[in-house]
Each structure stands twice: as structure tokens, then as C-alpha cells.
Sequence to fold (432 residues):
Amino acid sequence: MSPVIPIRPAGGGCTDAPVLRERGQREVFCGLTGIIWLHRKIQDAFFLVVGSRTCAHLIQSAAGVMIFAEPRFATAIIDERDLAGLADCNDELDRVVTRLLERRPDIKLLFLVGSCPSEVIKLDLSRAASRLSRQFMPRVQVLNYSGSGIETTFTQGEDACLAAMVPTLPELPEALATDPRPSLLVVGALADVVEDQFSRLFQQMGMDRVQFFPPRHSDRMPAIGPNTVYLLAQPFLTDTARALEARGLKRAAAPFPLGVEGTTLWLQAAAAVFGVEAAVFDRATSPGRERARVAITRHRERLQQRSVFFFPDSQLEVPLARFLSRELGMQLSEVGSPYLHRQHLAEELALLPEGTPLSEGQDVERQLDRCRAAQPDIVVCGLGLANPLEAEGMTTKWSIELVFTPIQGYEQAGDLAELFTRPLERRTRLVA
Ligand code: SF4
Fold:
């Protein structure tokens, strides 16, 4: 019986393709946005943004119509004050946190999330987090990270949040740590439904030492050891990966689990860690592969030969472009990403059609000119650009939807394709 050997695309595609790097005005959300999906994922965590009224508006409007009896995020508004007022600021923060934790015994993990205003930048949130952690130990752990628009874009908020948790991950107990068998850590917030589907597939392949990070509850933080290998489920986790490697973990390289091909290659990388037999892998994955292929086929008919232009937003752009071009036959006018991590995206870039125009960062006016010149059938962009482009007659897809919707894995491949057919059909109806 032969074990699964992950298929490593040997270069080619866009591996060495030139990238247009732009450092001009950009139109992207800040990292606070990540709170919207992270608070759903870690069910006993609370996110306290230390920020301004703008930050409070942003997370309220990004949260849309969600109404909670007991919300799990809030903003502590820090008004303008001079340096002498900083001591009061710390006292005020302590008071807000104390009140919150007294009122909410369900909170086990509290994140102090930094933001842009200069008053917040002057505050030492990591010191505040240590001080409050000591005060509320062991009932609540307090951590901090920055979601500031100066330091982070959109999905980098999740990266900063997970990176802040890595140093707190427990070590495997000694008996397990010295066990030469590997364990796998799947890294990146996935919708629970997707995580459950992957868990079932791992179980069917006999992979019993798999953990997910972030966990659903803070008291179930994954334990790691010298034989733990990590596999990224999201492409925007640069700092988290660095922090895991600083703790001795090695990365299993793979494309990301979008579409049939991406999901299969990603699962192969996971299976290879455990030396799963190829026949076992095929048996476990072929029903899902087949269902996904059928689900995608009807979308392929509608999307084939249509062109798509990606503005940089979520860092999911390269894996999405790979899926759209290879499985749905779409043409790639431009694939823009806020940050192109050559190493983490190596397997993706190798699969992109040669000659795909790639860009990193943004100079929004120039990019808009390129987009108008290309006249793509569909534009993937942030909310700020979507309305003006629609007014110019273009069809748009909000990139934020691709982060909020479960799109990974076989069972979601058809839904992912549909996210692109729907706006095109809506436009056809409007024009008809
Ligand atoms: Fe707050 Fe800065 Fe984000 Fe604006 S960009 S919402 S000020 S963190």
C-alpha cells in the first residue's frame, strides 16, 4: 500500500511571475473587522476595542443587524486627552474591565483590541492586559492585540489575535510530547460546520491527533509539542505562523481548501503528516469530491470565459483566483492582494495560469483606471469601491462576504461558485 504523497506543483504557473507593487492610497477595512467572525468562533471570548467613536461605528455596522441579548464585543471610547491624562485612562480601562467581568461571568478570555487614535497608541495595552490578567486570574485570561488601520488590514486582525494566543498554548504532557507520532494543528478560523466536516474526514482516515486553532472555547486551547505540524486553513496568518515556528512547529505546505482541487491538495498535505495510505485517502474523500464536482459543473457553464478583477482586500484573492480560473474557466484580469506571502502562497502561485497580472498593495486611483480599461465581467472589491463601480455599470462582489460565508471544503464548493454566478445573474436581470 502506498502512502499519500502531497502533490507539490513543481514551480511553473506564476511561481516567479513579476508582481506590481503599489504603495499609494488604499481602500480596505482595518483589522477590527475580524472581531465579527472571531467572536462567533471563540464562544467564551469577549473583544473590548479600546478606541474612538469611529471604531464603535465600524464594528456595529460591520456586525450589521446582529442583535444579541449579551453581545461579545464592545468599544471603550477613549476621548482626546494629554499625556497627563494617561494614568486616568488606565484607571478608566481597569474600571470598565472590572465592571464588565463582574457582570459577565461567562467571559473566560478577554481581548483588549488596540486601534488608531493617538490616545490609544500612547496606552500600553500589553501592560494593561498583564495587569488585568493577574487581577482576574485564574477566572479570566486577558490578552491584547492591535486591530488599528495603521498596522492591519481587514483579515490581519485575525492574524494578530491568533498570534497573541500562541504564546499561551499549553505544551503537550510529557508522555505525549515524547511520542514520536505527529500531531496536526489546523490553523485559522473556520466556520463550525466546515470544521466538523474536516474532522469527520480526518477520523475516516484514522487521523486521531488533529486539533483546530482557534478553539471554540478558551479552556480547550490546543496543546503543542515537538512533533506538532501545523497546516494553515487561511492565507493571511503570517504573524501566527511565525509565532508557531518560534515554538518549534513546522508547516505542512499546501494550497488552501477552496474548491475540489484546493481541498484535495490541502487534505493530502494533512494526510501525509500521518502517512495515510493512498487507498484510504481516496475512499474517504471521493464521495465529497464527486458531490463538489457536480455542484460546480452547473456554475462552470455560466462562468466560463467570464473575466474577474480582484481589488486587494482579504488576502484570499490568490486562492480564489486559482479556483475560479482552474475549476470554473474564468479569465483573470488582475489579482490584487494587500500582501503576497511568497512562501505561504507558493503552491497557489504555481497553479495560477502563467501571465496572470498580479499586484500587491494598492494605489486605488491607478488600479481603478486599470479596472476600467479591462472592463471585467465581475469585480471583487471592498464595500467602499462596490457602489461607485456598480454606478459605472460594473458587476461587483463584496470581498467581505467571502470571509463571512463558509466557503472551504467539498460541501461548500458549489456555494462558493454561486457567490460569483449570483451577481452576474442579478446584473443580467437588471439589464433585461
Ligand atoms: Fe478605528 Fe482606526 Fe479602524 Fe478607523 S481605521 S475604525 S479609527 S481602528
